[in-house]
Amino acid sequence: MAEQAPTLPHETIIQDSWSRCRDFGLTHQSTPIFTRPSPGEVSALLDNQHALVQTTHKEVLPYYGNILANSNCLIMLADNQGQVLQSWGDQRFIDPSRAPGFVTGASWQERYTGTNAIGTALSCGQAVHIQHDEHFLKFNRFMTGSASPIFDEQRQMIAVLDVSSDSYLPPAHTLGMVKMMSQSVENRLILNLFQQRYFQLTFNTSLNNLDSPWAGLLIFDEQGQVVSANRRADSLLGVGLARVNIESLFDVPLRQLLNQPEALPFNLRAGGRFRFHAQVRRPHQPAPIQARDFRPAAKPEERDDGFTLASINLGDPRVDKAVRQAERLLEKDIPILVHGETGVGKEVFVKALHRASSRAKQALIAVNCAAIPAELVESELFGYEKGAFTGANQKGSVGLIRKAHKGTLFLDEIGDMPLRVQARLLRVLQERCVQPLGSSELFPVDIRLISATNRSLRQDVDAGLFRQDLYYRISGLNLELPPLRERTDKAAMVQRIWDYHREPQQWAAPSAEVMALFERHPWPGNLRQLSSVLQIALAMADDQPIRPEHLPDDFFADLQQANGGSVQRNEPLVEQQQAIDLGAQFEACGGNVSSLAKRLGVSRNTLYKRLREQGLRE
Question: Given 1.10.8.60, 1.10.10.10, 1.25.40.10, 3.40.50.2000, which CATH number is that of 485-613?
Fold first, then answer.
């Protein structure tokens, strides 16, 4: 896999491009040269690029259909020579004199057309946004465009995706969209090539972003050898992923990854430092794509968790203090800042506060500032007028802040909010008005603000990463939620989450043996990890008592690390029962894996592995 070049500043990209144009002998008055390929050449070009064009057209663009429906922009796909392969959208802004540049086969290389989004993205190898006057040729200054390279599974640049228009395109937002689209194409190309024969590991820093194009994607075989990865995986792990074994990347045994319940999120740690949310998918036939909006999809209706301030206050003195202090400010216009490690239950705490207040019948709008791509944060928070940017909805958008009017606005992981957005948020909190993008109108808002962070915002202020004036605006009352390992009500919390996840026919409480393991566990992922462990254990055990063998391997990895490697899983394995004819037993159980696992006293994952080894299951 090829190494990625360092990212260049925009000013450097434009200066370098103009310098190249002069070296090519171009002047600002030059006319671009668009060769007209023959029908046979066009046919051969499209045949060679059939998979790329079809993947973009049928598997990616349906996700971004609103861009075509609600704007006058044109989306173009070009190959690695800058030749247009296909275009979608509105071509009405292209007059007849410029039409030759927008037909299949026309090349946008800088040597023939000067500085432009497609050609310059090819030359510098990164996403670019070219405004009207940044085009080297005056002939091309009627338009603006954003383009992003597309790389294949070997990190070779194979194409460029471009969004162009004759109207103003806000650089940050349009660049963010085209990056997301090109990453979507890369991901689909990788999956189409490998998903039927290899395992997929998707991981990200946020649980809400696991299914987004920004998630890391690793493809690996049953021996753990990584055969492909997207560029986001490199970025998250901070290493190149050529010819590595997956066990060298993550603190988890390969066996656990191979046996992980399909598509069920779990916690994952890399290098003892980085913590991710992840899910594994086994080799399978590709499912048909369903069209959706390019923006983060609305969450489905969630099961009522029933958490109240009383139900989360289970006896720990630090939690009790936080609850009592928050209760006193329920009806006060004083912002609250909740501190705590990732997974300690900050959002659950905020939901309970909202339910206990007089605003309970109004909306609680929770915004994970780390989960929204930086380029889209402003439009998502503050809203926008119709036509404010490429892809804007015809009706515009009120934004998440205005959706919280009369209710509660919860800004989770606020320390990850970009500085430019912090300035706009500060103005909203000071004036209690929101000005959408592209609008001159101010809209009053009445919101109760609660923020949360897992980092020291004071240190971020000192480092220049967080505005000091905004820090003092959001931190009226600072509350600290303790990590699970330090809580004195751990047993009660285990029971509370157990009751939430178990089915009616399952055992009413964990066994004393399992509870003893829970008490000794360091719980680096806190309540989120506990919830994941219990879900997996309950799924493994069905209606049987949960035993240690039903707990995931990473649970024991954390436990061994915390106890000096002295804890063993002690799972009864099928190898200890070699005299058993698995085929006969499997047939006697009617092919029911759960029934056979119960009869043998092993987990279903262990049994699945043995059945596959003996050719009894695929």
Answer: 1.10.8.60
What is the distance of C-alpha 243 from the center of its chain? 25
Residue in 258, 265, 429, 246 with CA at minimum distance from that of residue 335: 429
Record the tokens describing residue 196, joined without a space.
């039927």
Nearest alpha carbon to residue 553 among 226, 195, 247, 239 = 247
Q: For 104, phi and psi rounded to 5 degrees?
A: -60, 130
CA distance 231 to 217: 8
Q: What is the mean pLDDT of residues 397-413?
A: 92
CATH pick for 309-480 out of 2.40.50.140, 3.40.50.300, 1.20.1250.20, 3.30.365.10: 3.40.50.300
Measuring CA to CA, which residue among 364, 348, 362, 361 is closest to residue 311?
A: 348
User: How far apart are the C-alpha atoms of 129 and 143, rounded to whole Å?
Assistant: 11
- Whether 450 and 399 have beta carbons less than 8 Å apart is answered as no
Residue of higher predicted confidence among 34 and 5: 34
Task: Specify whether domain 10-192 bears CATH 3.30.450.40.
Answer: yes
**Architecture (CATH level 2) of domain 195-281:** 2-Layer Sandwich (3.30)
Q: In b/e form, how buried is each residue of 374-385, taking b as 16+ CB within 10 angstroms?
A: ebbbbbbbbbbb
Return the closest-CA partner of residue 552 out of 566, 576, 564, 569.
569
Alpha-carbon distance of 145 to 178, in angstroms, equals: 10
Does 311 have pLDDT greater than 90? no
Quick one: tokens of 467? 């505005």
Q: Is there a contact between 367 and 414 (Cβ–Cβ < 8 Å)?
A: no
- The DSSP bridge partners found for residue 366 are 410
Q: At 76, is the secondary structure helix, strand, or coil? A: strand
As a whole number of Å, the end-to-end CA separation of the chain is: 31
Q: Which residue has the tokens 């990056």?
A: 179
Q: Cα–chain-centroid distance for residue 470?
A: 27
pLDDT digits (tens, 9 = 90+) for 179-206: 888 999 999 999 988 888 899 999 988 7
Neighbours of 286 (CB within 10 A): 11
**DSSP readout, 277-288?**
EEEEE-S-PPPP
Which of the 8 DSSP states describes residue 590? Answer: T
Assigned token pair, 202: 């998707």
Percentage of the residues of the chain whose pLDDT score is greater than 90? 37
**What is the CB neighbour count within 10 angstroms for residue 305?**
12
Length of the chain: 618
Question: Measuring CA to CA, which residue among 389, 381, 11 is closest to residue 173?
Answer: 389
Buried/exposed 444-455: b ≥16 CB within 10 Å, e otherwise: ebebbbbbbbbb
What is the DSSP track for 326-362?
Answer: HHHTTTSS--EEEE--TTSSHHHHHHHHHHHSTTTTS
Do residues 518 and 490 make contact, with C-beta atoms less than 8 angstroms apart?
A: yes
Where are the alpha helices (H) located in 49-131, listed in sequence order? 50-54, 65-69, 110-113, 117-124
Prediction pTM value: 0.51
**8-state DSSP, 101:** G
Helix, strand, coil percentages in the chain from 3-state DSSP, rounded to 5: 45, 15, 40
DSSP string of 494-506, one letter each residue: HHHHHHHHS-TTS
Kindly tell me the burial class for residue 459, based on how many C-beta atoms sit within 10 Å of its own C-beta (0-12, 13-18, 19 or more): exposed
How many helices (H) and strands (E) the chain has is answered by 24, 17
